[in-house]
Design goal:
By secondary structure, this protein is α/β, with parallel strands linked by helices. The protein has helices at about 10-20, 40, 55-65, 80-95, 115-130, 145-150, 155, 170-185, 205-215, 225-235, 240-255, 265-270, 275-284, and strands spanning about 1-5, 30, 45-50, 70, 100-105, 135-140, 160, 190-195, 220. The protein has a 7-stranded parallel sheet with strand order 3-2-1-4-5-6-8, sandwiched between helices. A two-stranded parallel ribbon has the order 7-9.
Length: about 280
């Protein structure tokens, strides 16, 4: 039995769809806080269980019988992410899940300036200490987020960022297909595995790509961090979120997202989508 959390979301929902092309619905269970949102799976014969990362007892019941558990990282903006993940890992250990596969991030590290990367590193440490077989899917930074992280360049003609560095922008749909392929492997992958596209362009390189895509000149401006925050707040963004995002650029500038790995290409059987292809779709 493969049990999947977060299947009502874009990432693990797509992974579940990939699995259902290869497996009978009886071999899949999805866990969600709101079962009504998982009706498309229930209608296909998939078992739907209720579970919340804030309810350890409910998680133990939801994870019962899982040979593999695909555990999506929490995106609860108001929750204690590390505690939520601890609840899930402890529940998996309590019911003897065969293997936990956790959707981590390429830049996972306690010293990263990007807060989610710290949470991913803490969760990987929990898994290592849990006694469970585990796999950490260190996905590259999701390429669809370029629509926010490059700013309003289509209106201004400038990509303005507080720091620049290489990022292995990876299409979320490719990461989902890669996760499905790993779940279906005869031989598991132990520990962290890096799931990225084949290149890691900088924002300067993306600005040049945007110029080629649009036929107009798109420049790059690396702005002082405080000025960048002030500009974003003046444009109507909430300062806590702006400062949260600042950590991503700082991590990029420090090289946390620079590495690439051929594993995803091997899992897919073809080259993953490039950042330039995603950018072209966003610019259309």
């Amino acid at each position: 039995m493969i049990t999947i959390t977060g299947a009502t979301g874009a990432l693990n929902g797509a992974t579940a769809d990939h699995l259902l092309r290869r497996l009978p619905a009886s071999e899949l269970t999805v866990v969600t806080r709101d079962p009504a949102r998982a009706s498309r799976f229930a209608d296909r014969g998939v078992t739907v269980r209720t579970g919340s990362y804030d309810d350890p007892d409910g998680l133990r019941a939801a994870f019962e019988g899982a040979d593999q558990l695909l555990l999506v990282s929490s995106n609860d903006p108001h929750g204690d992410t590390v505690t939520q993940h601890r609840n899930a890992v402890h529940a998996a250990a309590a019911v003897g899940v065969g293997r936990v596969l956790y959707t981590s991030h390429q830049g996972a590290g306690a010293a990263s300036p990007f807060v989610p990367a710290q949470h991913h590193a803490a969760t990987e440490a929990m898994l290592a200490a849990s006694g469970l077989p585990w796999t950490s899917l260190r996905n590259g930074f999701y390429a669809h987020s370029l629509q926010w992280l490059m700013g309003p360049w289509q209106q201004t003609g400038v990509v303005a960022v507080p720091a620049d560095g290489p990022v292995s922008w990876t299409a979320r749909e490719d990461a989902a297909a890669g996760a499905a392929a790993i779940l279906l492997r005869d031989e598991p992958i132990d520990g962290p595995v890096t799931i990225t596209a084949e290149q890691a362009p900088t924002f300067a390189e993306l600005a040049r790509s945007a110029s080629a895509i649009t036929g107009t000149t798109v420049g790059l401006e690396v702005v002082d961090e405080d000025e960048w925050v002030d500009r974003a707040v003046a444009a109507g963004q909430q300062e806590p979120m702006v400062r949260f995002l600042l950590g991503m650029y700082q991590a990029a500038g420090q090289g946390w997202f620079a590495g690439t790995d051929p594993v995803l290409t091997e899992l897919l059987g073809h080259a993953p989508r490039t950042a330039e292809q995603v950018l072209a779709d966003l610019a259309a």
